[in-house]
Design goal:
Length: 345
């Protein structure tokens, strides 16, 4: 079976000094440390250690071959979004990083594909950039799960999502800029607690606001990290909908009635969690994602889906490749060169 990792990230090897370009501080930049290691910086602050797989196609494909990954779809690291900057500055950055992503794809076009980023704080600019990116060869677009206090049920964001549906651009939603402040400052709690909660907040915002009633069913929408805490707490949301009119006032159906409106990835790291996710979402609504090449990603890519008990062979085929092929419009009969082997969906 062909294996498609639809949730991974990239960084260019280098990019212009954005603080100098725009005349404002605390832009992201990359500090190379030698031996293929680097540190992503935000102004003077260390943000994340990374290594050459972020920008080196040969290193990425070497590790894909090691773990039996045929095609990897990557997107920007959310620190590059620029949503809190001036719209035109974010638009300039989106164009620059989108072009850099396609340069990486060009190194191995049968093994790599990219999702674009957009200046989501400005609906018109975002719509223009996603159109340009799709025309240039991106498979879809990655967006953050909110812009400041605007969640995905915001009218401007609904307009953007509707535009993506109209032009056939799949949308991957990634949490970023997590809540919690100082209470989340230790032990990476922003990533361990706030990040999955951000994703659940986004899904429920679309459901309980009635936004899914206004969005076209043709919209292809996926939430990363297994949908965060949504699947585990769906029963709580349904219970609240049935017993509190405040919860259901804008939503005509219980939350569990909207599971056919979006996908999630498989990056949950535990067979028990994957079993719950399959029980809740169904194998048809889960796509294989790793969060590669970061430390919080799946270190042995694909091992969870390949070895988890209770999955049928067809479940594994769907999760590992067939669902992503359909979601992103990849020809199901196409062969993908994989080093010395060729796999077919």
């Amino acid at each position: 079976m062909t294996v498609i990792d639809m949730h991974s990230h990239f960084l260019p090897r280098e990019w212009p000094d954005l603080a100098e370009r725009f005349g404002t501080p605390d832009w992201p930049w990359i500090k190379h440390l030698g031996d293929g290691r680097a540190m992503v910086m935000v102004g003077d602050r260390e943000f994340r250690p990374v290594y050459s797989a972020c920008w080196d196609a040969d290193k990425r494909i070497e590790e894909m071959d090691r773990d039996g990954i045929d095609l990897q779809i990557f997107c920007a690291t959310p620190v590059l979004f620029g949503y809190m900057r001036k719209p035109q500055e974010a638009a300039d950055c989106a164009r620059m990083f989108n072009d850099a992503a396609l340069e990486l794809v060009a190194c191995a076009p049968r093994r790599l594909a990219a999702l674009a980023q957009v200046p989501l704080q400005d609906t018109d600019l975002a719509c223009r950039e996603v159109e340009r990116a799709i025309d240039d060869g991106h498979l879809g677009v990655q967006i953050g799960n909110h812009v400041g206090d605007r969640d995905l049920d915001d009218e401007g964001l609904i307009t953007f999502l509707s535009h993506c549906a109209a032009i056939g651009a799949p949308v991957l939603v990634h949490p970023w800029d997590m809540f919690g402040g100082q209470r989340m400052s230790r032990w990476m709690l922003q990533w361990l607690v706030a990040m999955p909660a951000e994703t659940q907040l986004s899904i429920l915002s679309l459901i309980l606001s009635g936004a899914f009633e206004r969005l076209p069913r043709s919209l292809k929408l996926c939430f990363v990290h297994g949908g965060g805490s949504f699947a585990y707490l769906l029963g709580r949301a349904d219970n609240a909908w049935h017993h509190r009119d405040l919860v259901r006032k804008d939503c005509p159906r219980p939350p569990s009635a909207y599971l056919d409106r979006f996908f999630v990835d498989s990056a949950v790291f535990d067979p028990r969690s994957l079993k719950l996710l399959v029980d809740v979402m169904g194998a048809d609504r889960i796509m294989f994602g790793t969060d590669y090449p970061f430390p919080l990603g799946e270190q042995s890519m694909g091992r969870l889906v390949r070895t988890a008990e209770g999955l049928t062979t067809e479940d594994r085929r769907k999760i590992l490749g067939l669902n992503a092929a359909a979601f992103f419009g990849i020809e199901a009969t196409a062969t993908i060169d994989s080093g010395a082997r060729t796999a077919t969906v």
